[in-house]
Amino acid sequence: MSIILHNLPPIYNSDSEVLILGSFPSVKSRKAKFYYENPQNRFWLVVASVFEQDVPRTTDEKRAFLLRNRIALWDVIASCEIAGSSDQTIRNPVPNDLTPILTAAEIKRIFANGRKAEEYFNKLISPNIGRNAVYLPSTSPANAAVNLDQLVQAWKAIRQKF
Predict the structure, then answer these.
(1) Is CATH 3.40.470.10 the right assignment for the domain spanning 3-159?
(2) pTM of the model
(3) How far is the C-alpha of 109 from the C-alpha of 5, rounded, in Å?
(4) Is 59 left (phi over 0), alpha (psi -120 to 50) or beta?
(5) CA-CA distances (angstroms) from residue 71 to 3, 22, 85, 106, 111?
(6) Is 94 in contact with 77 (CB distance < 8 Å)?
(7) How many CB atoms neighbour CB 108 within 10 A?
(8) What local confidence, expressed as pLDDT, does residue 3 receive?
(9) What integer pLDDT is reported at residue 1 of this predicted model?
(10) 100, 118, 121, 153: which has the highest count of C-beta atoms within 10 A?
């Protein structure tokens, strides 16, 4: 395995209130240069359902959806060794610096999309920023044990008032 660099900038603006962090972008997302671009990943379907809006299709629609709903989006890991898109194979992770997001926006809650994102956040970032992340079940197709309805119910936490 070789070291892979995260090639996607964070999405946020000064109105962002919620930060959702994945672990590291999939091969398809890195190639497309945008988040959750594997058509089998349920992220866009889940967040659209939570906000009772149409599923965004294009990169511009997805970016607008996030900002309109005050969501910041990024990943915990800036670089790592990884085989394909499998979080289970991540080695030598280096964290992203969340300071630009946390400085520019009043992030009220941080959410981790999946156990690996939560694990790496708790290990690599939380001790430095003194904040915790709320675990949400992964929208990845690898998390087939959790169906769409269960995901939507769990992910409604991102809409709760703070």
Answers:
(1) yes
(2) 0.94
(3) 26
(4) alpha
(5) 29, 13, 24, 11, 10
(6) yes
(7) 13
(8) 83
(9) 66
(10) 121
Print pLDDT tens along the chain (162 aa): 678 788 899 999 999 999 999 998 988 998 999 999 999 999 999 999 999 999 999 999 999 999 999 999 999 999 888 787 777 778 899 999 999 999 999 999 999 999 999 999 999 999 999 999 999 999 998 898 999 999 999 999 999 876
What value, to the nearest 5°, has the Cα angle with vertex 50 and ends 46 and 51? 120
3-state secondary structure the chain: CCEEECCCCCECCCCCCEEEEECCCCHHHHHHCCCCCCCCCCHHHHHHHHCCCCCCCCHHHHHHHHHHCCEEEEECEEEEECCCCCHHHCEEEEECCCHHHHHHCCCCEEEEECHHHHHHHHHHHHHHHCCCCEEECCCCCCCCCCCHHHHHHHHHHHHCCC
